[in-house]
Predict the structure.
Amino acid sequence: MTMSAIAKSLASLLLITCSLSLLFISVSADSFYQNFYVTWGGQRPRVLQDGDLLTLSLDSVSGSGFQSINEYLFAEIDMQIKLVPGNSAGTVTSFYLSSQGQFHDEIDFEFLGNLSGDPYTLHTNVFCQGKGNREQQFYLWFDPTADFHNYTILWNPQLILFLVDGIPIREFKILESNGIPYPKGQAMRVYSSLWNADDWATRGGLVKTDWSQAPFTASYKGFRASGCVWLSGNSNCSDVNSTWLWQQQLDYAGQGQMQWVRSNYMTYNYCTDFERFPQGFPPECYLSLDN
Ligand SMILES: *[C@@H]1O[C@H](CO)[C@@H](O)[C@H](O)[C@H]1NC(C)=O
Ligand SMILES: *[C@@H]1O[C@H](CO)[C@@H](O)[C@H](O)[C@H]1NC(C)=O
Ligand SMILES: *[C@@H]1O[C@H](CO)[C@@H](O)[C@H](O)[C@H]1NC(C)=O
Ligand SMILES: *[C@@H]1O[C@H](CO)[C@@H](O)[C@H](O)[C@H]1NC(C)=O
């Protein structure tokens, strides 16, 4: 396909998905008060500093979570997160996009805690129409508990990118012509939660949560959404000229960065797990080295 043919099909795709109204909003320096509501955990989630900072906590009784008020059909979502410090084994902090229902779409970041000094695992997955099984895991090249770091999900009609401090770590491209579903028909909300998953999270469930360390706390700031807000069946895009909405692939610098992360920090890839897929890997594994 030529570039202009790609641009044309992207344009018509956007016209279809955003046909009824394509309007513009720009959201920046977004307050947690205005953008989220607490979904569970009683008094555990706390919004501080005039809505600039949010903390979630987990104790032996409950974890906690929040979700965005807006639903998006394509978005670039940034969140700065400082993970549970010290002995966080058994805890999971998640930050993801998801639609609702049995055949939902979902794009996940999950941070699996660990004993003091042992590395967190960053777990990623992409669900299309209720089906996931596309796990990839990474260690981070910094201590994610010492400071806030930026975690970004870029989701447009052509590709999904997972970025950490602006560095792409995973790419999931549209490959619908090969029969591989791509999430583009269901609006998603932003969700985050902190919960106990000591039955599987740390070393496959071998290390249990140490409740004497509770409450466990993760902090969030710098939420930024640039997206197409879904309202009563219409998609309201913040800026059709935004580069995130049109990006079809990583540039060479981005590809190099992603290769660096994947060569040095990737700890699990479903596309290379022979034991799990003895009959052959899922089709996207053969079509894109980066899926
Ligand atoms: C789209 O968003 C803008 C800015 O928030 C708002 O003024 C406008 O009413 C929205 N349009 C629709 C159809 O919701
Ligand atoms: C995260 O993004 C913000 C806003 O772009 C920037 O000010 C900050 O330096 C970034 N932090 C890191 C650790 O990259
Ligand atoms: C925790 O640390 C151990 C030992 O370094 C490592 O094998 C494991 O992958 C780390 N992460 C999790 C989530 O268990
Ligand atoms: C988008 O970019 C084109 C070309 O740069 C420009 O002509 C157009 O006005 C822009 N549209 C908006 C909505 O900013």
